[in-house]
Amino acid sequence: MDKELLLYNYFSNQLTVQEEQQFNELMKTDMDFKKQFDFENNLKQVIRDKESDNLKAKLIGFEKEINDVPVKTIPRTNYRKWAMAASVALLIGLGWLGYNNFSGTDYNALYNDNFQDYPNTVYAITRGAETDSSFERAAYVAYETNDNTKAIELFTELKETYDSENVSFYLAQSYLKNNQLGEAISLFNEVVEERGEFAPQALWYLSLSYIKDKQKQNAIESLKLLIADARYKKTEAESLLDELE
Amino acid sequence: MENIQAEITLEDLRKGSDHLLKQVYESNRLKFLNFARRYNLSEEENIDIYQDAYVIFYNNVMSGKLESLSSSISTYLFSIGKYLIFDKMRKNKKVVTGDYDLSRVEDTDEKVNTFDMESQSLTTEQVLLKTHFGSLGDKCQELLTLFYYRGFTIQEIMEAKNYNSENVVKSAKSRCLKTLKEKIQTNTYS
C-alpha cells in the first residue's frame, strides 16, 4: 500500500471508498502516517489562512480604489478647469443625444397623435339660452371656440365661487390647450383624486400632459392606472404605453 | 454586468486573475451593500462582511466544496453574507426585532450549507508553521499553494508551470515539505 499516494489522493479530494477505509485504518494504527497527515493538514490550513489574508488585502485595495476614484482622476493643474468644462459639455451633449435619440421617443408626435379636444358635455349651449349671461355659459362658449385665455380666466373665476369637478376638469383642459402644462397637470391630478365622474378622462389627459412635458415615468404610471380602471380609452392607453416603454 | 458574470466559470475563478477578482468584487458590491443595509450594521461593518463573504466564497471554490456554479455568484455571496451578518449580530448581542428570525440562521441556505464558514484561528503550532512557510523559496511556496490551496493535481501543476514530468513535480513537492520540516525542527530544538 502506497501511503504517500493515499495522502496525495486525500488532499486532491480523490480517495476511492476502498482507499478511504485504508486511510482511516492507518490513521488509527500508524503513528508516522498520522504525523505526516497532521503536518500536511496543518500546512493546508496555514496556506489557506495566508491566501485569505492576501485576498482580503487585495479587496481592501479594490475598496480604496473605488473610494479614491474622484480624487485620482482630477488633475491638479489648470487642465482641471478644462477637464471639468469638457466633462460638463460632454455630459450635456450625451444627455441631449440620449434624450433625443436613444430614448427613441418623440413626445410631441405622441401627444399630437393622441390629443383630441374633450367635448363640452356639461353645459348645453343652445340658441334659446342666449340670454343666459352666466359666467358658466360664457366659460363653456370660450372653451368650445378655443378661446383658451378667456376660458381660463372664466373657469378660474367660476372655480373660486362654484368649485366642482366639472369646472376643474375643463379649466385643466383649457390650460393644456394653452400649453400651461404645470397648471394642467396639477388640476387633472385634483380631478383624479376626487374619483368622480371625470376621473378616467382626467387620467387620460393627465397622461397626455405628462407626455407633452416629457415626463415619461409619470406618463407611464398614469396610463397604467387608466388601463387598470378600464372605463375610458383603454385600448389607446395600451398602445400609447407600448410606444412609451 | 449580469451578462459578464454569467460567463464567469468556476475554472476562471480558480485561475483567480486579479482582473477577474476585481471585476467580481465590483459587480456585486453595491447589490450586496444594499441588501446588507436592512440589518442596521454600520457601512464599514457591511463592507468588512462583504469582503469576508467574498473570501469565504473564494476559499470554497478553491477547496472544491463548490463543485458547480448552480446560481449566480451574488446568490452565494448573499447567503454567506447573511450568515456572517447574523453571526455578527449575535456577537454584538444586538436586540433583534421581529423582522429577522435568528433561530432560522442555523439552517443556512442550502446552497452554502456544505461551505466552511468559519475562519478558525491558527493553533500555536500552525502559527509557527506559517512563519516558516513564509521563509521558503518562492517556487516552493507557489507549488505547495497550487497543490494544497488551489487543488491542482500533480499533472496540472506540471502543465501550468512547465515542469518536465510529473515525477519532477512530485520530487519537488517532497523536497519542499522536507525543507519545511527541517526548518521547524531546527527552530524547535536549537
UniProtKB/TrEMBL annotation, chain B:
InterPro entries with a match to the protein in the record: RNA_pol_sigma-70-like, RNA_pol_sigma-70_dom, RNA_pol_sigma70_r2, RNA_pol_sigma_r2, RNA_pol_sigma_r3/r4-like, WH-like_DNA-bd_sf
Keyword Transcription regulation belongs to the record: yes
Top-level taxonomic group: Bacteria
Key words of the record: Sigma factor, Transcription, Transcription regulation
Gene3D superfamilies named in the record: 1.10.1740.10, Winged helix-like DNA-binding domain superfamily/Winged helix DNA-binding domain
The keyword Transcription belongs to this UniProt entry's keyword annotation: yes
Family annotation (Pfam families): Sigma70_r2 (PF04542)
Coiled coil regions, renumbered to chain: none
Domain RNA polymerase sigma-70 region positions: 25-94
Stated family: Belongs to the sigma-70 factor family. ECF subfamily.
PANTHER family reported in the protein's UniProt record: RNA POLYMERASE ECF-TYPE SIGMA FACTO, RNA POLYMERASE SIGMA-70 FACTOR ECF SUBFAMILY
Official protein name in the record: Sigma-70 family RNA polymerase sigma factor
Species name: Zobellia barbeyronii
